[in-house]
Every structure is written in structure tokens, then in C-alpha cells.
């Protein structure tokens, strides 16, 4: 193995990192075989890969394990120590966007957004950190107190406590969306069209490791010395490293309580949009969409940034996660394979913790990219799955031959809405919901446009209305009633004298034991004698006419007419045309057959009548 080189002077560089009960090591090591990263990522926290050099973090136990491997290693200065970090406890000073807030100022600023814009913003404390700090998320929407039928979008940052650029971008994005709502049409449309959740700092224990009034000693890990971006369950439910941390559990619970369909998680230390997967080289079924949508962010960042911005990892500013370096237990992958969302990781500054005075520059570099990326959530298929009464249904939406378990999407329970982001083209969506047969729906996706669809399962029972004249009528049913009992079907009909078919009869005026027609059937016609006109209304599901064959004997048969619409007699009886001799309705030969009527049909031999669809 390669000789481990740790010089005394380099060890001294790590001393400012020692705080509390564990030490943070930041180092690089030379690696000639990139395949070894698969195992190394489970020992230390890989941060970047540049050529043959791998940059990583470790706590005490990870460092001890790594040293046994004998790699050529160099301890590096703590990233948080590279620049002076101005910190202020004044919200007004922080809103100049060139100073970092103290913890109390950060909390005050977040709560101030809700108090200043109560109709647009709510602040949610999704949980507490290992040291008891609040993990705050701002919900921004035009009807913020109501869950609307809109895409739920999640932006978060700084799960690595020493990566602070995204933190400041998210704070300023919240402020800009709220303060310019109603005056800036583009920002107003974003707020009106989605439910946007923004968590600027999801690891405040790491950021404020040196105390609530400074960020100068910020660390990557949480207070327990755990990298939160290696702490999420793997796709099979197994754990990557130790116990689930409070911060991880809080964000998991929050995600599980919502239907986040789109989002990004901001980091620092590089400049690139990293899309799934991180844990495997196998491509996501929507790899082409992830690539094109990531390019929207990266190209806008390049266009508005200085020369070389967003080009350090790849020339186009985009990379597949595993192609860069593979990790397990990452937040991005968990959101995508467990929650079936569409989340990417955005590394927005090569310097993990730039001087606060440079934050306005990063805002200028990323502003257009952030808005353009958010607007992608308004494209694609925006669907709703409901029953015949408009009630939302729990459904799964997949594309045959395209999707797998981790890419199909589900409806939100409140409104039955779903969102499927796809490359332009025509697709067949298969919508599956318990209690119904699946439906296939063809959609065409156009770049830059929303494709709205509504999928309805079931039908509302429509009563069959049959007009009865005084005297004799020939009738039939084409719905399936709740009860076939003759008295139930004709309940409430006044003026009824007699009902009969070719063999049996029912007369309300007769004693029950004389009435032989106890039940009606949908495949027969009936004579009905009335003393006065009336309307017979029968509730039930429509009969599937083409799936309900009627057996006929040679000679005359009194049959029902099952289709929902009138058809020419020749068309309706086409299935028995070789044997058909005569059709009669009240002494006439009808040219058209109609719902609600019964017909005498004469055939030359026994056969089966099947009505067309």
C-alpha cells in the first residue's frame, strides 16, 4: 500500500477543527483506481474528485479506519477557515446580503417572513437538531393556509453545515418572492402556481458549531459527527452509516407528509448540477429529462456568472452523480427512489464557505437559473385522478416499457393530483387505482408547456327512464338494478295492471301465489299493461351490451334491447342476420331499435344475439 504521509505541521492545521467530543479531518488522498470509491465512501465522506485526488472528511472513528488503508494522504486546512466571515445579529444588516446571520438573527428573519407576509408565507419547524436548534422551512403560496391542487416543490440547502452559499441564496430567494409578489409578474406566477417550500439551513448545528454568534467554526457534519448526506436509508431500506440522525429523521418525516414532486438540494465545494443516481451507475428511466432540466440551471448560471463558472466538473455544468463519484445514503437518491420525486443536487460555489461579502455576486450568478429551474415544475403532465363523483383517488401512474419502481409517480391524497415531468413526445400513461380496471391515457408533452389531463374512474348510475302509455307496452331494461324483484322495480308506479313475458305474469290485484313473474331479467322483453300513462325509472349500472349475449330459440322470442343508444334494426341484429326472419314491435316492423323497448324477434333456428358496442 502507499505510504501514509502526515507531517507534523499539517497535523497542526487540524487543531482549530477540534471542538467538543470529536475532531473533523479534511484531507485529500491519491487514488489510481476509481472503483475503490465504492468501498471508501462507506468509510469516509467523499467530498470531491479531481483527477486522481479524492477530497474527503472524516470524524475520529472514520479517520482511524481510513488510516489503516495506507493511502498517500494530505491533511488540508478547514474550509471554514479560508476566509473571514462577517456575522451580524441584525436582521436589517443581514438583508444587505453581505453578512452571515447569527443563529438568533436567522430564526428571527425566518419568522419575520411569516409575520410580514401572513397571506403568502408560513414558517414550519420540521424538527430539532441533535443540539436542539430548529430546522425551519418556509412555505410560500398565494393561499398559504390551504393545500391546493398545485405541484409541491422543495428547495433546501446546507445539510453540510460549512457549505453556506446556498443558505444565503435561499434566504434571499424567500425575501425576493415575498417582497416582489404582485409587482413582478414572473415571481407572482411562481407563487400563484405552486406550493413552494424552502429550507435554507437543514444543519444549523454544523453551521453554528462554534456557537450561535459565529459561523467561523462551521463543520460539515452534524453535532454528533455524522455526515447527513450519507445518513439516509438505502434503496433497500438498509442503513449506510449508524443510526438515523434527528435532522435526517425530521426531513424524512416532513417529506413523507407531503408529495414533493420537484426540487433541489444546494451544496458547495463545486459548481455543477448533479442528477440521479448517486448510488449506482444504472441510469434513471428519466435520465434524458434529468439531463435537459439540469442544463436549464447550469446554462443560466454559466451565462450570468464569471468566466469558468459552472465548468469545473464538466464543461456543460452537469454531471450524473455516480459518474462524478458514487455515494450511498444520499438525500437526493432517497427523495427519488423512496418518494418518487424529481430532485437534483446543485453545487453552487467552488468555495464551500465564501466570504459573506461575495454573496451578492453569487445571487447575480444564480438568480435567473433558480427562477428558470423552478418554472420547469409548471411544465410536463399535470393530471388529476378522480372517481365519477369527483372524489380524489389514490393512483399510480406509469409508462409501460419506460418506468421502474423508482420512477413511476403517485397521486396526492388531498386532490388526486399528480405531476409527471417528461421529455417532449407522445406517451401512454397507465393509471392504476384499487377497485377499478387500469386505464391507458395517451398524452403529448410539449417543451415549455403544461399538459393537463383528468382521468375519471367509474360511472355515475344513470336511471333508465321508460315511458309507459295507457294500455299495452313492450319494454326492456338496459341497466342492472339493485334488485330484480318485479315489485321492487315497479314500486311506486300507479296504474299498473299486469306485467308478463312469454310464459309468466304478475298482476298487483291478484294474490301473491297467483303471480308467477317474481323477477325481471335484462335479456328479456316484457308486456306491461297500464290504466294510465306513467314513467318507470330504474336505477343501476349500464349493461355492457356487447358482453351480454342473449340465447334465442327457433321461432318467436321476446327480447330486450341492451345498447344505450338507438341503432338501425339491421345493425343491432347483425349477429343473427343469417337466421333473422322477422322483427315486430306492437304490430309494426321497426326500422330502428330503441332503449327501453322490447321486441319480438323470429329466427329460423336457435342462435345467439350479441348486440354491437
Short recap of the structure:
The chain has 613 residues and is α+β, with helices and mostly antiparallel strands.
Q: Can you put this structure into words, describing what you see?
A:
By secondary structure, the protein is α+β, with helices and mostly antiparallel strands. The chain is 21% helix and 29% strand. Strands 7-8-10-9-11-14-12-13 form an eight-stranded mixed beta sheet, with helices on both faces. Helix 10 (287-304) runs antiparallel to helix 13.
Main features:
613 residues; alpha+beta; elongated; disordered N terminus
User: Averaging pLDDT over every residue, what do you get?
Assistant: 94
Which structural category do the helix and sheet elements fall into? Answer: alpha+beta
Report helical residue fraction. 10-25%
The span between the termini is 77 Å
Number of strands: 36
